[in-house]
Specification:
Elements: H1 8-17, H2 22-29, H3 55-61, E1 86-93, E2 96-103, H4 108-119, E3 127-129, E4 150-156, H5 165-176, E5 178-185, E6 190-197, H6 202-213, E7 220-223, E8 245-252, H7 256-265, H8 279-286, H9 295-301, H10 315-330, H11 342-350, E9 359-365, H12 372-380, H13 383-392, E10 393-399, H14 403-417, H15 419-426, E11 435-441, E12 446-452, H16 458-545, E13 558-564, E14 570-576, H17 581-590, E15 598-602, E16 607-608, E17 626-633
Length: 635
């Protein structure tokens, strides 16, 4: 009831962190200034459970102890301020879903009022279905229904005709068209050519004209709007304007008195409807009231357009509009806001190299706070603050004015920082805004170092920023040291891996060279063996083909040849004198000296026998009756 925490696991975790001290757990979740449980004895602890009437005397007689003890749990009447319980509703209507966040003290009628603005359907025509307890009426308080935190409802409109598909095409086409509005400023006789999409509203046109003419919407007097333009919330596509160009005239009302009288008499005239948020400030401006005397109202009146669109699909687009609107209100000297999602801001701030990391500053804007205008113009836009933020922080911003944007940020906050931080921001009152959150990234989580409220000074803001940077710098130096050591280890490992790779490459190259050499040796050996086998085969063939050696007592003429080898050995053989010289060559080849590689030389006279005709007989070449020959290798 106090904290709005419905998740039993989360509640048990908080109790365990506080040694099951219920009061300490609640105080840890709810900020001190927003109402906490207090015991009758302040921070004094008891040595035993303080239940019953005897507890008081026991506490008085017991000395304080630093050991674990139970605090006196007081009744619920001692809760200074009960925190509101927020309920989330997802409401479905045809093809649309609307998210509504309300306190449980609200009524069903307030939900319908919000849906009336979102869906453009009268509340009286709505039937809100999906309640667990059956049908309820508009005056039913949500707390009495005992609803869970997240609820799903749907809207029925039986009294309204269903949308006609035959008209949806032209309407969509009109919404996508661009209208040229030629607006004449009556007092100065000047024309403005303004382009607006068909989805723009009449109110947006009037606010843009306010930017150009400085005539507040309340004091604008228009001519030329079609009779069908009955509401400033109507889009140009359905207002009856002439496409593609339409002429209008605008001027200023004569006096504030006349303006107020006409506003009271013609409160239903849509051309005179103005932004009620700025009425007091505009009237004060007419009467010359100083801005400083009305800074609370002025901060609201200066809102020509919202800082951030409601229910923006893309956070980057929302931040672009925020930056542009902030510049138009407070000038160009302001912090450089990071354009992108909160997750992208985390990446930019926390997940680079340790030397490049920065703190993350989250600026939470609220247009309804009386402190916003002073905080933005005098502190956030101070040159010293802007320069310091630029050097040491990544600055991200969000607008908490609209309930949908507020709920969206609280969801992001819970996801990234936990429920305690989200509950702290949820319990901040409007007048405590704007807020400045200082976030430091850690290895396992993101830590909120400081929450700075809007009621501060430039010096105090600078001191708190510097204190956060000092804490961050100490952590950053440790991270840099760890990163350097890690990079050194990785460099050594890379060098070792590279040396190992080179060694492997050298070993592989050496092994491949050895394998190639061995393969070449094997190939040459194979060739040599084949050659030897071939030569041996030839030798044997020649040896077998030789005619038989004649005997010494042969009756035929016999020639006796003595042949000396290169090694100094001799071998002899007898040949018939009629045998051809080729027979001698074959005999020498059969001994392993083929005539292709060796030449056969005679002594007296010295001659090369291998050059003679092998078909001549030994007698004809004068190798008869005997001769000594020499074998010599050819060059």
């Amino acid at each position: 009831a106090c904290t709005g925490i419905e998740n039993i696991d989360e509640a048990i975790t908080l109790l365990e962190q506080n040694n099951w001290d219920l009061v300490a757990a609640i105080n840890g979740v709810i900020p001190q200034e927003n109402g906490i449980l207090q015991s009758e004895y302040g921070v004094e602890t008891l040595h035993g459970p303080a239940y019953g009437p005897t507890s008081h005397s026991a506490a008085a007689s017991s000395a304080p102890s630093s050991s674990s003890a139970f605090r006196h749990v007081v009744p619920s009447r001692q809760i200074v301020e009960r925190q509101p319980r927020m309920l989330d509703f997802r409401v479905e209507y045809r093809d649309r879903n609307v998210d509504v966040v309300l306190e449980d003290s609200s009524t069903v009628g307030e939900i319908k009022h919000i849906l009336e603005n979102e869906l453009q359907i009268p509340a009286s025509k709505m039937l809100l279905k999906g309640w667990k307890t059956g049908d309820v009426d508009d005056s039913t308080v949500l707390k009495s229904l005992h609803l869970p935190k997240n609820n799903s409802l749907y809207v029925l409109t039986p009294d309204l005709p269903p949308p006609s598909s035959s008209h949806s095409g032209p309407l969509q086409e009109s919404l996508n068209q661009n209208f040229m509005l030629i607006v004449t400023h009556r007092e100065v006789q000047r024309e403005y050519n303004l382009n607006f999409s068909g989805s723009s509203t009449i109110q947006e046109v009037k606010r843009n004209v306010y930017d150009l003419t400085s005539i507040p919407v309340r004091h604008q007097l228009w001519e030329g709007w079609p009779p069908s333009a009955t509401d400033d919330s109507m889009t140009l596509a359905v207002s009856g304007l002439t496409f593609p160009c339409h002429r209008l005239t605008v001027g200023r009302r004569s006096s504030p008195v006349q303006t107020r009288e006409q506003s009271e008499e013609q409160c239903t005239d849509v051309h005179m409807v103005s932004d009620s948020d700025g009425d007091d400030f505009e009237d004060a401006t007419e009467f010359g009231v100083d801005d400083g005397e009305m800074f609370g109202v002025a901060s609201s009146a200066l809102r020509k357009s919202p800082m951030m669109p409601e229910n923006a699909e893309n956070e980057g687009d929302a931040l672009l509009q925020f930056t542009a609107e902030f510049s138009s209100r407070y000038g160009d000297c302001h912090p450089v806001y990071f354009i992108g999602s909160l997750e992208a801001a985390f990446q930019e701030a926390f997940y680079g190299k340790a030397r490049d990391r920065k703190l993350l500053a989250i600026y939470l804007h609220h247009d309804e706070s009386v402190l916003t205008n002073v905080f933005c113009s005098q502190m956030l836009c101070a040159e010293s603050i802007v320069s310091y933020l630029s050097q040491n922080f990544i600055t991200w911003a969000w607008d908490m004015t609209k309930e949908a944007n507020r709920a969206r940020f609280l969801t992001m906050c819970t996801r990234h920082f936990g429920s305690v931080v989200a509950q702290t921001i949820r319990t901040q009152k409007t007048d405590q805004f704007p807020l400045f959150l200082i976030i430091m990234g850690k290895r396992s989580s993101n830590e909120v170092l400081n929450v700075i409220q809007g009621n501060t000074t430039v010096d105090e803001l600078m001191m708190r920023l510097m204190a956060a940077v000092e804490i961050f710098s100490a952590q950053q130096q440790e991270d840099i040291k760890d990163e350097d050591e890690r990079e050194a280890r990785e460099n050594v490992k890379r060098e070792q891996d590279e040396a190992y790779r080179i060694s492997l490459e050298a070993d592989r190259a050496k092994r491949e060279a050895q394998e190639r050499e061995m393969a070449e040796q094997f190939r040459l050996e194979q060739i040599r063996k084949e050659q030897e086998e071939e030569r041996e085969a030839i030798r044997l063939s020649l040896e077998q083909s030789l005619p038989p050696e004649p005997k010494e007592e042969s009756t035929e003429s016999v020639s006796k040849l003595r042949i000396r080898t290169p090694s100094g050995e001799f071998f002899e053989r007898r040949f018939l004198a009629s045998s051809k010289l080729q027979v001698v060559f074959d005999f020498v080849a059969s001994k392993g000296y083929p005539w292709e590689e060796y030449k056969l030389l005679g002594t007296f006279p010295r001659r090369d026998v291998t050059q003679l005709d092998p078909n001549k007989s030994l007698l004809e070449v004068k190798l008869y009756p005997q001769e000594t020959l020499f074998l010599e290798a050819k060059e």
